[in-house]
Amino acid sequence: MSENGTSGGGAEPIGPALPEYAERVLDVADLIPPGRVMTYGDVAEWLGEGGPRQVGRVMALYGSAAPWWRVVRADGALLPGHELRALDHYREESTPLREAPRNADGHLPRLDMKRARWDGGTGAASAGDEGEEAHI
């Protein structure tokens, strides 16, 4: 497929082109290593534009093919309506979780943001490790 959304040979576009900002957000989501997460605000800050709501909107509209479970709320709560699917991914990737207290509604764990948060450095280095920043 060519960059303009056509399949070569002058065919009609396959679908509407993905907005540039959405492409950049999804590129960042693809960079987050398994077992690590970035908040919506982290992604916006890393890109140097937009904010948490814009990143959340992109993920809601276009993020189904990206590792959406790695772009999260700052409080570590699992994405409403997708908690069990996300939890399966977190367990498969050994993402650090904090178990819910027994009196918590639904007994769902939260992400352990201190251990799971990724700072955008290369590889899967922890947030406290030094490393070069990857750029898009």
Describe the structure.
The protein has 136 residues and is mainly alpha-helical. Helices cover 34% and strands 6% of the residues. The chain has five helices and four strands. The strands form two sheets. The chain has a two-stranded parallel sheet. A two-stranded antiparallel ribbon has the order 3-4. Helix 1 crosses helix 3 (52-62). The longest helix has 12 residues, at 20-31. Mean pLDDT is 82; it is low at 1-13 and 124-136.
The share of residues in extended strands comes to 5-15%
* Main beta sheet strand tally, sense and closure: 2 strands, parallel
User: Low-confidence runs (pLDDT<50, min 5 residues)?
Assistant: 1-13, 124-136
| Series of H and E elements | HEHHEHEEH
Give the strand order, joined by hyphens, for the main sheet: 1-2
Arithmetic mean of pLDDT: 82
Note the quaternary state here: single chain
Radius of gyration: 17 Å
Overall shape: it is globular
> How many runs of DSSP E, i.e. beta strands?
4
The N- and C-terminal alpha carbons lie at a distance of 21 Å
How many individual helices? 5
The helix-and-strand class reads mainly alpha
Helix content: 25-40%
